[in-house]
Amino acid sequence: MRKPIIVGNWKMNKTIAEAVSFIKEVEQHVHDKADFGVATSFLALNESLKNASKLIVAAQNCHFETSGAFTGQVSVEMLEEVGCKYVIIGHSECREMFGDTDETVNKKAIKLLAKGLTPIFCIGESEAQFDAGATKDVIESQLTNGLKGISGDDVKKIVIAYEPIWAIGTGKSASVEVAENCCKVVRETVKKLYNEEVAQAVRIQYGGSVKPENIEEYMQQEDIDGALIGGASLKADSFISIIEKVK
Ligand code: PGA
């Protein structure tokens, strides 16, 4: 049985004080039917981790090198030092704006797994690719290249977030059918690359305009094991309502 995992991706939002106050309020509502977490700014990670006992506190990115001349970057070792256990990698905003590629995402995943941290590994197609019917090809190539060199046992630990770019921050969420079909393609691709056991173990999130009003129908789908949530994770009320609907 795969335990669902719901993570709020705060992007460039929330000061340290705001993060801590959110965590204190929301923690009381966390239950054990699923894993729940928030991905804070690097700066808010430490305080957030200290104040969280039930919520996962994730980072939004990492570098694959241990140290060196990489201005503005944060290494996995630095995240490990503050007790961070989950890290989002390959988010479409990082792929589109900050130069992430399948190759760098692959290196980040390998480094995280080697250090015992869990990658939340984002993939997803653009609107033009969706319209051209290329979704399956995009998913297959992002997974084939992004998981290169990673063992099946390690892939079982990864959380894959399938996020169609056209649904992120647009309010235009993928229909339940589209989301489920695409998450199924993700699972089938993992099966092709590894085997049925690995495919059944890996947790797959859907992301893109998930909110309290639609979380339940996504969660009822066979291949959707959770959600990566941007906008609707920023307000405590909204995130609490999501937590309560995943019971
Ligand atoms: P959204 O963002 O929920 O605001 O669409 C999702 C994401 O970027 O992970």
Report what the structure shows:
Strands 1-2-3-4-5-6-7-8 form an 8-stranded parallel barrel, surrounded by 4 helices. Helices cover 43% and strands 15% of the residues. Helix 1 (16-27) packs parallel to helix 2 (42-51), helix 1 packs parallel to helix 12 and helix 7 packs across helix 9 (176-193). The radius of gyration is 17 Å and the shape is globular. It has 247 residues and is α/β, with parallel strands linked by helices. Strand 3, helix 3 (76-81) and strand 4 (86-89) form a beta-alpha-beta unit. The structure holds 2-phosphoglycolic acid.
State the distance separating the first and last CA atoms.
Answer: 15 Å
Count of DSSP strands: 8
What's the total helix number?
Answer: 12
Helix and strand run: EHEHEHEHHEHHHEHHEHEH
Tell me the helix content.
Answer: 40-55%
Question: Which of globular, elongated, flat, extended, rod-shaped describes the shape?
Answer: globular
List all distinct small molecules, including ions and cofactors, that are bound in this structure. Answer: 2-phosphoglycolic acid
Secondary-structure content class: alpha/beta
Strand content: 5-15%
List the uncertain runs: none
Q: How do the strands line up in the largest sheet? A: 1-2-3-4-5-6-7-8
Q: Give the oligomeric state of the chains in this entry, treating copies of one chain as homo and distinct chains as hetero.
A: single chain
Report the C-alpha radius of gyration, rounded: 17 Å
Please state the average pLDDT score.
Answer: 97
Described by strand count, sense and barrel closure, the largest sheet is: 8 strands, parallel, barrel
